[in-house]
Design brief:
This protein is mainly β. It folds into two domains: about 230 residues, Oxidoreductase, molybdopterin-binding domain (Sulfite Oxidase, Chain A, domain 2, Alpha-Beta Complex), CATH 3.90.420; about 120 residues, Sandwich (Immunoglobulin-like), CATH 2.60.40. About 10% of the residues lie in helices and about 35% in strands. The strands form six sheets. Strands 16-17-24-23-19-20 form a six-stranded mixed sheet, with no helix packed on it. Strands 3-2-12-7-8 form a five-stranded mixed sheet. Strands 4, 6, 9, 10 and 11 form a five-stranded antiparallel sheet that branches. Strand 9 and strand 10 form a beta hairpin. The N and C termini lie far apart (about 50 Å).
Length: about 350
Amino acid sequence: MTRVEASESITPEELRLATRNHGLPLEALAYDVTPVGLHYLLIHYDIPVVDPAAWRLSVGGRVERELELSLDDVRARPAVTQAVTMECAGNGRARLAPRPVSQPWLVEAVGTAEWTGTPLRPLLEEAGVGESAVEVLFSALDRGVEGGVEQRYERSLPLADALRDEVMLVYAVGGEPLPPQHGFPLRLVVPGWYGMTNVKWLERITVLDQPFEGYQNSWSYRLRQTPEDAGEAVSRMRPRALMVPPGIPNFGTRARHAGLGPHTITGRAWSGGGEIERVQLSDDGGFSWHDAQLGPQVSRWGWRAWRWEWRPRTPGDYELCCRATDSAGDSQPLEGPWNLHGFANNEVQRVPVTIESA
C-alpha cells in the first residue's frame, strides 16, 4: 500500500473506490437503527450475482460430519434478530498523515442494522468440531486481486470466538432479504468486531487445525508500521463517539453555521471492547471537556445514544470534539497512531462550527 501526504489531492485510485463505497451521512445518527440504504458499505471486489435456488453453504474441514445446506435449510433453523453496530476497520484513515492510499474514509464508515439469521454455534456443533480445531475459516464468493494475489475473500476466527453465542449467519436485514451489496444470500455477522470480519456472500465454512495464513488474515488487516513488520491483527472495534453536526452546512465544504442560541448536541457511541460508560464533549478543540448525558443502548451490541446542551458564549469560530470511554477503560485519543494501512484510527471527531451573531 502506498501513502501520500495529507495535503495532497485524492488519487484516481481512491476516487474509484469512493464511487463504489459510501459512508453514513452524519445526520443519520439520529436513527436508533440505520435505514439500510444509509448504512455504510464497503465492497472489496465485485458484487456476485447469486442464484438462490442453486446456492449451497458447505461446512467441512476438521469436523465429524460434513454438511451442505440450501438457503431454505438455513432459514428453517432457529432464528434470532440482533441490532448490531458495524464499523469499517479503515474508518478514520483519511485523517492520518501521511495518508495511506485506500478507501478514503473520514469518520462515516459505520451503521447499526437489525440483522436476522441463525446462530453459528449450533451449526458447528451439529457438524462436530474435531479436537484438533483451532480456527474457523469463512470463504466468500467474491474474487479479485489484492497485493498481487488472486484470491477469494476469506477470513478466519479463533475457534473460541466463532463459538460465541452472538455470532450469526445472516440472511435478512431490517426484516427483508439481504440486498446484493450486503451479502445476499448469506453473510457472517460477528458483533463487536470491525467490519472486515463480517464476511459477505458466504459459501463455505471450514474448521482448521492450524491458523489461516491467507492474505486477509496474514497481511491485509494488521497494524504494522512497515511492510516487514508482522503487526498486530485487527479485531474488535475501539471506542468511538460521533455527533450530529449542529446548524446547517455550506454545500461545498460542509462547514457548519449556527445561531448563538443554545444547541442540543446529540450522537452515538460504541465499542467492541466493553460497554460505553462515558462520553465527553469539548468546544475548544479538546482543551476542556464536559460530560454528556448517556441515553439508551439499542441492544447489547448496538450503539448508545448521548446528548449535551451546548451554550456558545459569543459569536465566532468553535471546534467541537467528542470522545467515548468504555468499561475496559479504553478512551479515544486526540490524535490516532499512524499505521501502514490506516486501520483502527479512533481519534476524536472534530467539527468546526461558526456561530453567527443574532
